[in-house]
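From the pipeline queue, job 12 of 40. The input is one protein chain; the requested action is below.

Action: predict structure.
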Amino acid sequence: MSDIWVLSLEGDREPELKLRTEFKEHFAAFSPDGLWMAYMSSKEGKSQVYVGLAV
């Protein structure tokens, strides 16, 4: 299992968990407005790209 965390470059710099599942997620990217997140996941048995709300 791997999770997706973000860390602000400013402020309190506390890690924020964005995604936790029983599968392997990696290579996250966020839309310019911060509302959407694309990531790779193995939840279908092979790595695929998924997109979801990041908030």
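Job complete. The radius of gyration is 12 Å.
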